[in-house]
């Protein structure tokens, strides 16, 4: 595959960049995974990646770096000091790399993107990689096209959708991303291509070393191939040589390897033929070899005028243009994007593309006027001080810090009781509305029995001085569930419009399971005997119509309701029968699907996963089935492992995993999963007291408060609101009913789970339990 990149001829640095010393790793504040082509591969992106890694390690040793190199398996390039290899055409290699990086505990991933370096159409396999990353993603876009193909646009949109921060090397590229792709400026950072810091004005010394005496030297560098504009400079040479016969034009760089593979050296030979025909062959010095970075810098130091006569004006970055400016070279260039920005204000001379007359005029003017040449060189050198490696490294480290930034928060009590104003704001006389736009209830989506069932369970647990208000809410949610009951179909409806018209005659099996769960819970925990009596009656009626349902989650939800019902009536026959039927179903599923690396009930993961284990635990505990209990506990341990990051924080199974066989994807993360993890841990702890259950629940609750992959505080203690989850780019700003209820119920689950520990600690347990990240108080 062709590797189209800027100035793609340098092979990187002399010697191999050493690995981060072990003693520094222990002190590292952040761990960074860098992904891209890498030295010694002969590719401009590889050089940039090598520079990035080398300069960060040199100037910011507090950042530990793992390099994962994109490799061509047909190449004989030998890599040293890297953490991993990604074969660019192997889809599984991208998936394995993402999993390896996730398991390494990386705080951020920095991806170098150019369409040509990834496998698949237009490099689409990069999507297989970024979709599976958990850590914040930083993307350097080496090419931003003003007129991309449909496929290129699709890939870039996917990258931008996943990226926490986007780096480009020109303001034009940043403006293009903002205008064409709607990227917010807070995610865009312009960092000019870095450059070395060498003394000014050493042409004489390096000309002598290369045997050129005091001849005026022009130079162009890069992998030789059409599109560099070298023909135009050769055509300008007769006019330049007529005025300055001792001038020499040095063309440094080997022919592009893809061109060699296809055509041999035919292109270089055509340029040599052109030079002979024009009578300027003696004015050209062909340096036909690959050069490493130190050699390139020495070659640049020996020149007076550096030329980049590219005919294409969309090139956003040229590494050696940055080098030439930083070394204080006068530059004559066509106005491609990078050159237009870097050479403005007289730093260089910009000429029209494809014009040998313009090149000749610009070069002759500089050589005719040594003072003007010197002034331009000094201006370039001054401009280059802005991009020297220490400045570049500082900007790069700042970008890493920005990507991984977590809220710095004072110690807030983990068990502070959430307020209810955010909850009640979502409720009216009908019930609890489903969705919100930000914190504003969105009436257009109406109501559902799912949320009103959960709301009733929350009110069953809420302590409040205003008893009449709590009972009013209980009655409202109970009335909604009662009205949802369709006696003709012997099931519950689910969705109701804001106009109080039902959208269906029968809701999903899952929503029916949740309604039965809420009724079983209310039968024992309802606030009044009248409410408990009502719940018992409707529970029995609903259970009678549930006998043919075999959806695992729907059955698990109803089983949890049956477990609640049996607390108040241990010999309730229908509840026992449901537990028995559900236990057999779940246990058989686990036996059928489980294998050594996938100890789960299904070959896919869905939402509310821990509920399957929780229901099997409750059935085993209540019915005395030790095999079910052990299976429930072992499967819960497995899902807990899948939902724990390498750094130890809670990472819920993302909705991107749903329906993907044997895949655990990190985004989008939803509050429902944290609530399920906490309540399943409580069931496990009741059946088998062990600190492991509490520790996992504790991590899941901290997820709400900012201890998560994006450091995003989702929940607000003061109002009790909760954001709708975490995307690859951060928090979803909406605060819908499901999220608010998940946070509120998770709090009560943590209190119930922690009470035995509080007794063990002599009553000061809550005082000693503190979080390192306080929830932001902006969800108001």
From TrEMBL:
The keyword Transferase applies. It comes from the Bacteria. It comes from Croceicoccus ponticola. It holds the Pfam family Glyco_transf_4. GO terms for biological process: carbohydrate metabolic process. Residues 58-194 form the Glycosyltransferase subfamily 4-like N-terminal domain. CDD domains: GT4_mannosyltransferase-like. InterPro entries: 6-hairpin_glycosidase_sf (IPR008928), Glyco_trans_1 (IPR001296), Glyco_trans_4-like_N (IPR028098). Keywords: Transferase. One of its GO terms (molecular function) is glycosyltransferase activity. This is Glycosyltransferase. Transmembrane segments: none annotated. Residues 212-381 form the Glycosyl transferase family domain.
